[in-house]
Amino acid sequence: MAAPVTDQEQILSKPPRPSGFDERYRLYLDESGDHVFRDLDKPQHRFLCLMGCWFHNVDYLSFHDALANLKARYFPHHPDEPIILHREDCRSSIEMSWFWPQ
Q1: What is the DSSP letter of 3?
Q2: Whether 31 contacts 18, CB under 8 Å
């Protein structure tokens, strides 16, 4: 009869990191605001925000397709000039005016 496997042996027998596409994750981080804290009397300069999205690779594929469809529907563009969504650009779009409060 074989000896029972210890927790340490189980940990050491696993690969050090995910090896397949389906086992990996993606992390996207972005900042918004003013990181130097100048002109604090102006509300738009008072805050710094760090935001992130963490996706399981399989879920990211669905998100990517849905985002591409949203961009194509509301912001028609040439494939060689992809749309980057910025709040001010979205607010100035006539078709998206219903979405952003003034």
Answers
A1: P
A2: no
Three-point CA angle 79, 83, 89, nearest 5°: 150
> Measuring CA to CA, which residue among 56, 83, 58 is closest to residue 68?
83
pLDDT in tens, the chain (102 residues): 666 767 666 666 666 676 788 888 999 998 877 666 677 777 766 777 888 999 999 999 999 999 989 888 887 888 888 888 776 666 666 555 555 555
User: Using CA atoms, how far apart are residues 15 and 32, in angstroms rounded to an integer?
Assistant: 37
Could you tell me the residue ranges of all domains in the chain?
A: 22-92
Q: Give the span between the Cα atoms of 25 and 27, in whole angstroms.
A: 7
